[in-house]
Amino acid sequence: MPVYHPQTQTGKGADLRYRSHAKVPASPRSLGRGWMVLAFFFLTVLACPTSWANDPYPLFGPRCEEPAVTTYKAMPGERAPGNYADVASWTAQRTPVTRVNMLGGDFWLVSQFTPDQPGNDWVVTFDNTYYENARILVLGDDGLVRQFESGAATATNDMPRGTAAVSLSPGHHYAVVIEVSSKFYTAIPRIDVQTRAEYHKRRTNESALMLGSLGVLFGLGVFIMFVGLWIRDRSYTLYGCQALILVLGWGFFFGVPQGWLGINTDPVNFTQWFILLPVVHVRFTIRFLELWRHSPRMARLGYAIVIASIIALPISLIFPSLAFLIATFLVSTVVLFSASMGIWSLWRGVRRARFFTLAYMAVLIPGSIILPVNFGLIPSIVDNADLMTLMGNSCEAMLLAFALADHVKLVEDGRERFRRGMQEAVAKASIDALTGLGNRLAFNVMIEEITRRENVDPAAGTWLIAMIDLDGLKLVNDSQGHERGDDLLSAVGEGLARLGDLIRAFRLGGDEFAIIAYGDEHTQERLEKALAELDRRLRGSDFPDAGISYGICSAPANQRRFSNADFAELVREADRAMYAHKSRRRTQRVSDPHPADQTVTVLRGD
Fold it and tell me: Is the overall model pTM greater than 0.70, yes or no?
């Protein structure tokens, strides 16, 4: 087998494959399919029977008793009933309304119930909505009168709910009267009644899931953001910012700054963070899915959502009653936008959209459940839809992290394919196709490599240059045809390739060959004998008029570093020796199979 210089080796099975990055216009039909799939899913959720919400499914703990709630509009200066006996007359003087106004206001919520389980330790919970201030009054026919305060403004709400621990006696009748005030509401309020043990189990589960979900979002956000800053990839940075904004939004919603840290955040609340979310959310989607390249029209639509979010931010502070509806609308829009773009990209065969689309499905499903609840269309279907949405966000964050990791793998695979392809292309460009030897490019590359490193052990040897000219090639071409000439070149190439491991042979063009070798005087002698033997074999084969003329030049034995000028001088001296050898062959018939020594030692300094 021929021996090649490492720079000219070709890898087995190397395949240079290029993926076209030409601009691909978006297909309106494909876009329509993506939107149709999402619209069908969304309408299916909205079409679910509202009776499901009459008895919310207990996802996070034991089922609790949920007595019916009657809602009344609260007027300034009104007072709550003083005892259980006054409740009937007090409610008779008021006209009930269908539900609280989602744009905020003051309301009375009244619910009556009779405990049907043994035990005296109970918890009454004002649940299922965000509110600023609530006074919870529990009255009983056994003389019970207990009052509690809760809400974001009082920094005593709990995930977010107001709880009243009371002692209730089975068989007695009780009423819960709540006066609630808020700039907006996030759902139809609900009153839950359950034993203290059941409430403790539910609260433990919900607290663990809340903290775990926030921890996942925070950890992924910080890690991925720093990765993005480190590698200067804006997709990672935007994703990290998106996760951290979600942490702030949900942290404010669950009262972490107010109830846990004692921080007064007015007038900012959780809605401003969710309004800010599309600013980075959309840009991440556009950049990750390369929408400017695949679908500029949808990229422009995404930036329209960004501009709308920026404009909506001060509006939410000026008109706080609209803040939640604005946030709900923008978040719903951006999730639909990202999910539809993921489906569309997946439909078009964009591999990186796999985990991306799955991530938005993870948040779209709970989001579709909670969306009609947020608009006050139906009561909540599950016992804590907000926590379920937070968990969906944490799943979304993990799947988006998988999407980024998958993207890294795809990029690395592409780079590896490109690297192998470039290696093969360079190798092919560095190999003479006829003889399999390195060509002039490979010869120059090897010289460049030698000049970049030092000869650390001059005692072991030095560099040798041999210039070789093939005699008789023109005669063979003219008399026997170019195919026979090619056979002659191949025979010379095969002979040169067998000279040894530390010897690299090159065909510089036409009938000109060169050798670069490393070794001592014995190596030089072996090279001379090998070239003389190759000359004899050619003359003794089917090419009696052919032979090789050669000259060998060695660098000084004590030279450690070599420059391009040093090698240029070695080549010139080897050329002179080769032409001297050729001249002698023309003037006399060489009978000695071992020609005279044509070696010239060039003594050059650095």
Answer: no
Give the lowest-confidence range in 20-29, 154-163, 342-351, 384-393.
20-29
Report how far residue 339's alpha carbon sits from residue 350's, in angstroms, rounded to the nearest whole number.
14
The better pLDDT of the pair 604, 84 is held by: 84
Residue 502: phi, psi to the nearest 5?
-95, 15
Q: Are 468 and 550 in contact (CB under 8 A)?
A: yes
pLDDT score recorded for residue 20: 33
In the predicted model, what is the mean pLDDT of residues 451-468? Answer: 80
Higher pLDDT, 557 or 198: 198
Task: Out of 52-56, 91-95, 141-145, 223-227, pick the least confident.
Answer: 52-56
Q: Return the CATH number of 69-185, one of 3.30.930, 2.40.230, 2.60.40, 2.60.120.
A: 2.60.40
Alpha helices in 268-384 (DSSP H): 270-288, 291-294, 296-318, 323-347, 353-374
| Mean pLDDT for the chain overall | 80
Q: 531 with 576: CB under 8 angstroms?
A: no
Which residues, including other chains, have CB under 8 Å from residue 391's CB and lie 6 or more apart? Answer: 209, 213, 366
Query: Residue 428 is inside which H or E element, if any?
Result: helix 385-429
The arithmetic mean of pLDDT across residues 160-187, rounded, is: 87
Report residue 284: phi and psi, to 5°. Answer: -65, -45
Q: Which residues contact 175 (CB under 8 A, 6 or more apart)?
A: 81, 84, 87, 110, 111, 112, 113, 138, 139, 140
Instruction: Pick 202-410's CATH classification: 3.30.750.24, 2.30.110.10, 3.40.50.300, 1.20.1070.10.
Output: 1.20.1070.10
Asked if 387 contacts 206 with a C-beta cutoff of 8 angstroms, the reply is: yes
- List residues bridging with 548 in a β-sheet: 470
| Residue partners of 177: CB distance under 8 A and separation at least 6 | 80, 81, 87, 108, 109, 110, 137, 139
Decide if 152 contacts 132 (C-beta within 8 A).
yes
**Does the 440-587 domain belong in CATH 3.40.50.300?**
no
User: H helices then E strands: how many in the chain?
Assistant: 15, 14
